[in-house]
Hints:
The protein contains 25 helices and 19 strands. It is α/β, with parallel strands linked by helices. Mean pLDDT is 95; it is low at 684-688. It binds ligand LT2ZWINM. GO terms for molecular function: (3S)-3-hydroxyacyl-CoA dehydrogenase (NAD+) activity; delta(3)-delta(2)-enoyl-CoA isomerase activity; enoyl-CoA hydratase activity; NAD+ binding. It catalyses: a (3S)-3-hydroxyacyl-CoA + NAD(+) = a 3-oxoacyl-CoA + NADH + H(+); (3S)-hydroxyhexadecanoyl-CoA + NAD(+) = 3-oxohexadecanoyl-CoA + NADH + H(+); a (3E)-enoyl-CoA = a 4-saturated (2E)-enoyl-CoA; (3E,5Z)-octadienoyl-CoA = (2E,5Z)-octadienoyl-CoA.
Amino acid sequence: MAQYTTVNGSVALITIQNPPVNALRAAVREGLFNAIQKASSDPLVRSVVLSGQNGTFCGGADIKEFGNVSSMSGPLLVEVFALMETSMKPVVAAIEGFALGGGLELALACHYRIGHSKARVGLPEVNLGLFPGRQVIAGEALKLGLLDRVTDHNTVDTALAFAKSVEGKPLDNRRLGNRPCPPLENMDAFFEEAMKRVRSRARGASAPVVCVQAVRGAATLPFHKGMELEKVLLGTLFNSGQAQASQYCFFAERAGARWSMPSGARWDTCRALSISTAAVIGLGTMGRGITVALARAGLSVVAVETQEHQLAEAQRVVSHMLKGGGQVSYSSDLQAAAEVDLVVEAVFEDMALKEKLFKLLSSICKPGTLLATNTSTLDIDRLASCTRDPQLVVGMHFFAPAHMMRLLEVVYGPRSSPEAVATAMQLGKRMGKVSVAVGNCPGFVGNRMLKPYLEQAYFLLEEGATPELVDAALEEFGFPMGVFRMTDLSGLDVGWRIRKEEGLTGPDVPAGQPTRSRHGHRYSPLGDLMCERGRYGQKSGRGWYLYDKPGGRVARSDPWLRNFLEEYRVRNALVARPIHRQEVLERCLYAIINEGFRILDDGIAASPQNIDAIYVFGYGWPKHRGGPMFYAGQVGLARVLEGLERYHLAHPDVPHLEPSSLLRRLVASGSPPIHKWNQMVKGHRSQL
Ligand SMILES: CC(C)(COP(=O)(O)OP(=O)(O)OC[C@H]1O[C@@H](n2cnc3c(N)ncnc32)[C@H](O)[C@@H]1OP(=O)(O)O)[C@@H](O)C(=O)NCCC(=O)NCCSC(=O)/C=C/CCCCCCCCCCCCC(=O)O
């Protein structure tokens, strides 16, 4: 756990050994404590170097231990830090790879810090619902005073030589606790301003706000008082559900990599195909972003667009985004895809068009090319059936902007081969995405759950709410944007096209169909009516809100919309009633959660963690709320069930509010913790 050797006669070299990231679990803390004591008491030792095994200094406290703080054993981290800081022999940290969180604190407890030029240091615990903040690379850390020296050579050797050179030198001014915090003019005003900014960006997350309080304490109080305050604040955060939610997200983000398919194929038994060249077909917003993402991942990409003016514009935009990096060529001819290893289709969301394209690609591309579609809702299997090799067809559902959004839904159809899935998953990793493998059904996981969410938002408008009221409730909950601001941004016409494709609106709706009902279920035509009036959202300068111009970003309330809603209600004999924030939250969020349970039961998602990763990394669900399924557990499954039952009773024509059978079974079996939910899922995964 902490290897101890003596080097150059007088230097004790302590190496942390806890792969993969040298996290500071109990045995490591104990090992470090004992090693420092040993170095202190050995008369031959005059200095100490602290390093980490395998080119990695330390990834911080062991997050797995946070789940059960009461049973934590071994010395506390602060006890290890104090022992190092008060050592009478100089302790030098040799930082390679990263020193993060408690790992950086460990380095700060040393008297000197030498970092490799590529090392990253930082305190990212805010992402785990604890304070403090961002990571910096060695050069910046040197400027900030976090490191004393940066090297391009062997860091441990440099630190060993350095330790030798400082043996016997006074240490008092090297101890962090002795170093004064430089006073700031207008300290109070500075912290008040900082707090204001952090609060407005935190969207309900406590950690960033508490972090400012702790830094204020550190800057204004004597060292030991600052430490006491930090301990109290840390305790508050630890006991808040937010820290648990954020830590859960840390592991959910990584859980997708261990994917499995209903056939039993798994991440650790399937080999990915080798991919070095790709074609992206269709260079609208999505296609351009996908081209950038693939090129940045090191693939040689040919970007294909049959419309010449669109191709020229895409070339300009993509080159600008790549800033000269990346290997991209452009073509208006589909034949350019003949020799590539992978094709990602990103044309319009139109089944007939995609089917035609897949047929063509299947005849053009060399045998063995993986054909991926970026469809957000359409049937992967139908596309696969147009091709020569249906086993080589998968969905790669990117999220806009595709080069920035972390999420990638990898969709397998009943005929997709495990190798095809492994290849798409590995590509996701190369692009730095959080990739989640999911089954094939309309909307897959993310958009299937979005449907009942949007539906509830529209119904709430019919019943008396305004877009402002609904959005305020959701933004207060922590979403970066409420549902109406979000649809204005993504474009109301996207959903309109899908509803037309589904025969819910447009010429395919049979004559005499009631306005607010489809197949015997409640339906809101509000989104269709908006589109029929050219209100597509930001792109047309008006949607649920008003913008100063087409493409404008600043949303203003629109008096036209208020009149439109009033007239709509009168026309449909609806009486507006006051709607409370709580009802908005419960109906919108419980509808998402309920669909999540159905998706689990259908085997479309392999675990609640996968669903939560999709919502946090693709749909803006606040990380400090842990994702919809985790949130359901925090609210209490019985309470979610009771809420759904109540709303379904009030709206019996809304099937999405009818509690899912899995939720009922879980409540009936005593609401087990989230990691046990899979045991209650139906035996096998169904496929469309
Ligand atoms: C950059 C990384 C380190 C590495 O990235 P990469 O190489 O891509 O690898 P990954 O896939 O991410 O990770 C590999 C596997 O390692 C696991 N992992 C990573 N980091 C940790 C960790 N810190 N602990 C445990 N496990 C870790 C990861 O899950 C992967 O395994 P698997 O695939 O999931 O199986 C990158 O991993 C990274 O960024 N890691 C996180 C870095 C980080 O955030 N560090 C900070 C940790 S928090 C910390 O250090 C806090 C310190 C101070 C507080 C200490 C508090 C102690 C408890 C006191 C309790 C007081 C409560 C009082 C209550 C009361 O009073 O009532």
